[in-house]
Design brief:
The complex is a heterodimer of chains A (176) and B (301). Chain A is an alpha/beta fold. Helices cover 30% and strands 24% of the residues of chain A. The chains are: A alpha/beta (176), B mainly alpha (301).
Amino acid sequence: MKNLLLVIAFLVSTVAYSQQVPEFEGKDTGAMVKAFYLYHFAKLVDWPDEYKKGNFVISVMGGGSLHQELVKKYNNKQIGSQQIEIRKLSKTLNISQCHMLFIGSEYAAFLPQITESMKNMPTLIVGEAKGALNKGVAVNFVVEDSNLQFELDVANATQRNLYVGTTLKSLAIRVQ
Amino acid sequence: MSNRPMIKMYYISILLLIFPLGIQAQSIDELMQRAYLHYTEKQYDLAKVDIDEAVASRKGIENPMAWHIRGFVYKDMFINKDSMNRYSESRDIAVQSLQRSIFLDGEGKFYEMNQLALKYLATSYWNNASEIINSPNIHTVGEATEYFEKFRAVYDQLNPDSSFVKRDVDFYLALATGNRRIYESDRSANEDYWLQSNNYLKKVLELDPQNFDANYSLGVSYYNKGAHSLEKLPEIEIFDLYRVQGESIRSIQGALPFMIKAYEINPDRIEAIKGLKWIHFNLHQYEESDKYNQQLNTLEK
């Protein structure tokens, strides 16, 4: 009894530690890097004068969360004096005028038709499929050593009256 | 109120122990008697003067009762005057005094009371560590370990045979959480706390390699760091991309072994499957990512 009472006299409650596992931030880092590249392609390629007014239009077909990433981080930026405008496209061959067109890997099978349908447009076409440069695409994303990089076909750009600067060429992993 | 008679009995027994010592060591006895009377009258400052003098003397330094009384005087000073002050010296002195009393007390006359008082003080160290971790900030989070070590030193002495692994694991997981919260409050300024958080999680794995939470948390930590580092992309120059992307990829690659281990420990935990899906996806390993995505869809149906 004595012991019990003495224990009561010494009782002090313990404060529990707060433990919490971190929250997983599921991000599409590939989309983040692609969005960054597209923005810089816009800065490092020269368009014909008639394309240097109005909004600078980037159209996106597929590519997971790339459209969302572009809107979130680059929608309020400018290319020269042109405001960037991001458009999301569903699968179509009837593509309206734009400065840059990204075609995701899920639409790779339609690349020849798309590039053909845009034959005379000064649009920088960007893909992410193996062999896309041979299907009329000017810039193609590739993964090398887990890093997302790009290869370049200068002729596919020049044919559309686009001038590719030396900086972009020097950054490409392959130029043809 | 109900425990007062018993405590009074204890006080009387202490007095009976003090008085017979009088012939051989009069001055120490007098000092102990005076200190004890001051103590019972809650005049702690007066009690402190006498008992400090007693334990400083040649005979007092070897006297378990003197150290026992000193421990209680300082413990009650802490409780009554200093309990909100985690830097209280009174508490540390109380602990040292009670430990010395136990060391000198071959017959174990004071063991039970010394032990109870030490448990009380140890718990107060534990609580200080908890309070710091539960409201972490840059200036104090490092002190949590200090209080936990003080708690552990006392508790180890009282329970030499008990295993501390579970308590250490809980503590390090909590410290990892606290440091991570500081990092997340300002990722660029507080990067050291990200490292510190991971170090505590790795300490958990040294103690318990099969710990799901530590493996999963390390996986998330490395993944989040890698993914988050790309948030700064819009502000960097294109020439810096390869460096930034490389750092991101290396961090995400670092996440993979921990997440795989978490998955192996518990393959039904949705968060580990989701983690593997995203890690593989961001390493451009799409087939692997799809495999976990399918498993996720099956489990979530």
